[in-house]
Design brief:
Layout lengths: L2 H10 L3 E6 L4 H4 L6 H5 L4 H8 L3 H7 L8 H15 L3 H14 L9 H17 L4 H9 L2 E7 L14 E6 L1 H4 L4 H11 L6 H19 L3 E4 L14 H13 L15 H18 L2 E4 L20 H6 L4 E4 L7 H10 L3 E4 L3 H4 L1 H14 L5 E2 L8 H24 L5 H19 L3
Helix pairs in contact: 1-19, 1-20, 4-6, 5-6, 7-19, 9-19, 11-12, 13-14, 16-18, 18-19, 19-20
Length: 434
């Protein structure tokens, strides 16, 4: 066997750590109506189909769980765009999932009916209690020991299944709360009447400590790069206080309707710094979305990780897990991971965004970034079948990159195995104290 084959075999021998998922609970998944398109086109590849020319109206038709159209009729709508886009990482991962999970040779006109039938059978068998599809995909096929699960909600209600997940807590809502009623409710849950910025800071700290104690969160997550720049300026407290009081003071507390609010950027900046100071005291990790935003169109420059340099400098006690290799700013992220001891590269989502970029970036990083600063895989999917396609590409990409380094004489085969183990297991385990 050549070095790539041996490294790939070694990669598949490991039960790995998955740094990032959005998976809904299995009991909710098995009760969802619809077909394989309503599941598989929730995200990612649907954006490539739109990019290839599929209309938003037709996309909604094919993924409508209540549609009267047959799976073959839906395929006829999708076929020209699916064939145009199947070369992308998103498309390739679905063909891999079809083969690896359902033993179907890709998503095509002559396979879609049988593929959909096997998908629906898996859902029914899970619902009947015959087997767990999540366990089959995540444990047996993907060989994932544990996934770091993005809770999304600002207030967690239940602990994710520990057989599969460790929870991460989103605190974006405390930085940019969207309604006065929500602010008031958060205060009531903390037993704090909110009148000023100091009160809101106390509410924020209360909820952070509550989820640490109740749910054992392993990190905090921010996805605000979808909405604004990642540059968080150092704002004086009196400015943030004035802005906060102006917003909450201009809203009638007894309104029966949800009163939407938009917090000014300076307030958001101040609260990000406050949350990072809380995390530093607790020696916690924070995950940041950077780079490409999912969906069809956004301001990519907002999510450039270069904007975060001031945060890295000011909070050396916080570990920053920087998502999605910052694509297309992966070289800049590599420089920051080299320069800052508290900055880590996370390849979540990256292997399906661009398999080739992921390989080349890893080859380059290993020339100037310490090998223990990179996390190799995060599935970042809302539907479980996608995780298998992604983890397959991730293992292939890492094995290819490391084989290149061995063949070029950068290090030997045993060192490549050591780095592979660090990237898939040791580094993420340390970041999240697993």
């Amino acid at each position: 066997m050549n070095n790539y084959t041996k490294l790939l075999e070694y990669a598949w021998s490991l039960d790995i750590v998955d740094t990032h998922e959005h998976l809904i609970r299995e009991e909710l998944w098995m009760d969802e109506p619809g077909d394989i398109f309503s599941d598989w086109l929730k995200m990612y590849f649907s954006c490539d189909l739109i990019s290839a020319g599929l209309s938003h109206k037709d996309l909604e038709i094919v993924r409508d769980p209540d549609s009267e159209k047959t799976i073959t009729e839906k395929w006829k709508i999708l076929e020209p765009y699916w064939n145009a886009a199947r070369n992308t990482g998103y498309g390739r991962s679905l063909d891999i999932a079809a083969k690896g999970i359902y033993n179907i040779d890709g998503v095509y006109g002559d396979t879609i009916e049988e593929l959909n039938k096997r998908f629906l059978t898996a859902r029914k068998e899970t619902s009947d209690g015959t087997r767990s599809h999540y366990k089959y995909v995540l444990k047996e096929k993907s060989k994932i020991a544990v996934s770091v699960q993005d809770t999304v909600n600002e207030v967690m209600k239940e602990t994710p299944d520990k057989e599969f997940y460790r929870p991460v807590y989103r605190m974006d809502w405390f930085i940019n709360p969207d309604s006065f009623q929500g602010v008031r409710k958060a205060g009531e849950e903390a037993g704090i009447s909110i009148h000023n910025l100091s009160d809101w800071k106390n509410v924020t700290e209360f909820h952070l400590d509550s989820v640490i104690k109740k749910f054992g969160i392993v990190a905090v997550k921010s996805g605000l790069a979808y909405e604004r720049s990642l540059y968080y300026a150092k704002v004086p407290a009196h400015i943030a206080d004035t802005q906060f009081c102006a917003v909450i003071g201009g809203t009638h507390p007894r309104s029966v309707h949800t009163t939407r609010i938009v917090m000014p950027k300076e307030f958001q900046d101040y609260m990000m710094h406050h949350i990072l100071s809380l995390l530093e005291k607790r020696k916690m990790t924070i995950q940041f979305h950077t780079g490409l935003q999912e969906g069809s169109g956004n301001h990519i420059s907002n999510s450039n990780p270069e904007h975060m340099t001031n945060l890295f400098l000011e909070y050396p006690g916080v570990k920053f897990d920087i998502f999605h290799i910052g694509f297309p700013y992966q070289q800049s992220l590599g420089v920051m991971a080299k320069n800052f001891p508290n900055v880590y590269i996370d390849m979540a989502w990256a292997h399906i965004i661009s398999p080739e970029t992921s390989i080349r970036a890893l080859v380059e990083w290993l020339d100037f970034v310490p090998a223990n600063k990179i996390c190799a895989f995060g599935g970042d999917y809302f539907f479980v079948d996608g995780v298998y396609g992604h983890v397959s590409l991730a293992r292939e990409n890492v094995a290819k990159a490391l084989a290149i380094k061995v063949e070029r004489g950068s290090f030997d085969f045993n060192r490549a195995k050591e780095i592979l183990h660090w990237m898939f297991i040791d580094t993420p385990s340390g970041l999240f104290k697993l």
